[in-house]
Design goal:
The protein is α/β, with parallel strands linked by helices. Helices cover 24% and strands 18% of the residues. The strands form four sheets. A six-stranded parallel beta sheet has the order 9-8-7-14-13-12, with helices on one face. The protein has a four-stranded antiparallel beta sheet with strand order 1-3-2-6, covered by helices on one side. β4 and β5 form a beta hairpin. α3 crosses α4.
């Protein structure tokens, strides 16, 4: 049983099951009397070495030395209600040939963190392209791009709460509000384009995440600033944590439709990521306040910014990984 998560001090099979299912894993295994292992995959080898009593209940067996006592728990899944929410966050250097692995009928919109459309020669042309004002330097170019009102939605700044020292393009909430009023809000008046607020990270420190966004909203108020939806990002290790964060975000901003424009699970295998993504998408599809989502990312491992397990495209660009097949609706 490939490990997706391994933790000590779980003293009974019951506590291990509860731990694994909270992360969305159906298989839990105890070992060495108090170790808990979780997986999306069933074991492939039968072990006869499970002889150790559980540390918390001597009447039960919790594996042995290099032997797992495995339990399968059925995790209820939610039916997919609307996969038209699903989009592609397309990197600028992704080869156009990778578009062939996805279908606009299943994934009908895309963005590329830029104001320019990455598609060429009609590739994926039936899908909606959503431009983004990536940095504060891009804000002054918005009027030229929207001289033809070429898009029905516009995404605001990308992770403006992320400091430069952390690899981001930080903008203070005040400066972001000034740029919004000068360059972005006029697009709403001229083109009736739906505006998405700046997309923040899921960091919880002061000045990050929702705290940055609340400061921005206090500086950018109606009628000089209006927002039709709020995009945001999430990276973490469990389906439960993801669902909890999205739910809490909705609680903080209950009147806005939400776009989860980047999300990904870290620290697990590609196969386990595929399982977790399936669970997450079923849940997102069932949440009426989640209008759209796009998982990071439809690219090969080299372009995954250190999260190769989430790559949708194989190393050699020859096809889709298990994650890609799941996201493309082919599994």
């Amino acid at each position: 049983m490939p490990d997706a998560s391994t933790t000590s001090n779980f003293t009974t099979t019951t506590t291990c099951i509860a731990y694994c299912t909270s992360f969305g894993f159906p298989y839990s295994g105890t070992e060495y009397a108090n170790e808990c292992h979780c997986s999306a995959a069933a074991p492939t080898i039968l072990s006869t070495g499970c002889t150790m009593n559980c540390a918390g209940n001597f009447s039960l067996i919790c594996g042995g030395s290099n032997a797992l006592s495995v339990v399968h728990t059925t995790i209820p899944t939610l039916p997919a209600t609307n996969n038209t929410k699903r989009g592609l966050c397309w990197p600028w250097n992704n080869p156009a040939s990778s578009f062939a692995f996805f279908s606009p009928s299943a994934i009908p919109w895309l963005y590329n963190w830029e104001l320019w459309d990455p598609r060429a020669n009609g590739t994926y042309s039936s899908a909606e392209y959503v431009p983004m004002v990536h940095t504060q330097a891009d804000a002054s170019t918005v009027p030229a791009y929207f001289s033809t009102c070429y898009a029905t939605h516009l995404l605001g700044f990308n992770e403006p709460d992320l400091p430069v020292a952390n690899g981001g393009a930080y903008i203070s909430p005040y400066n972001a509000s000034v740029l919004w009023k000068q360059y972005i809000q006029p697009v709403k008046t001229r083109c009736n384009t739906s505006l998405g607020a700046p997309a923040v990270t899921n960091a919880i420190a002061s000045g990050w995440g929702t705290d940055w966004l609340n400061q921005f909203f206090s500086n950018c108020t109606s009628p000089n600033c209006t927002f039709d939806f709020i995009p945001f990002h999430w990276y973490g290790q469990s389906v439960l944590d993801f669902e909890t964060y999205v739910t809490n975000f909705h609680t903080i901003f209950p009147t806005y439709p939400l776009w989860v424009t980047e999300f990904q699970f870290t620290g697990v295998s590609n196969a386990t990521t595929a399982y977790m993504v399936k669970e997450a998408m079923q849940w997102l599809d069932a949440q009426t306040y989640v209008a759209r989502y796009s998982m990071f990312g439809p690219m090969n491992p080299a372009n995954m910014a250190g999260i190769p397990n989430g790559a949708m495209v194989k190393d050699d660009l020859s096809g889709l990984t298990p994650v890609g097949l799941e996201y493309a609706g082919l599994m």
